[in-house]
Amino acid sequence: MTNSTIETLLNRRSIRAFVEEPISDDIRNVLEDAAQHAASSQYLNDWSAIRVQDPALKQLMAEFGNQAYIATAPLLYVFVVDEHRNALIAAGKGVPTDPEHYGLSGSYRFTQAHNDAVLALHAMETAAESLGLGCVILGSLLNNVSGLVEALHLPQYTYPVLGLAIGKPAQEPAVKPRMPRTLQFFDNTYPSDEQSEAAIQADLASFDATVHEYYDLRNTDRPVDAFSEQIAKLAAQEMGDNHKMQPLAHGQGFRLEK
Q1: Is residue 214 part of a domain?
Q2: pLDDT tens sequence across 74-85
Q3: What CA–CA distance (Å, rounded) separates 96 from 99?
């Protein structure tokens, strides 16, 4: 069973090379409409997106992400948690909006706003791909949250979530393999008993081989570790200060301990 929407989702690939061709205003408007129609927790509309259009600013984004192709994207967005707009609304109604009393500055609302921003970005990405465009989601921009806040003039009660680069594809990479469903879909409870965990390890060994073959075929000159080895290396790394969300979010007025 399939349709065009399912085909778009199942053929999703990250595109990191774009044709030097601008995206029309009509297409951009459709993509932004699609993002705005994503689900929003309690209808708070607590996300926004910055269109990065200035070439110098695009170059800065590429430096933050350590990925040169970011600067070449015809469309580049940074999606942000946005409780600043709601603070303006609340203040206009006489509600205190200092960090200690503002009800939308705590961890629950931050998490929900973060989710809303991701849902909006995903809607935009899917819409773009359905129109034959290519996209890449840019978590790498969060390598420098403080720099993003400064460069994009993000005010109190906002926080960067993800970037999205969009353009006409100049490459056609293979679809990356996905885990067997047995590793990610479970009935009723999480399988944490000894037998289940042994089965997970066995399925992971098979998945490791599949991922290794994918990377070998994609770039024979640059060997890539198996999936499990990649996870183990990341698990052993210490988190740098630029990736510690609580103090960075605190600087933007959020109280994640609340």
Answers
A1: yes
A2: 999 999 999 999
A3: 9
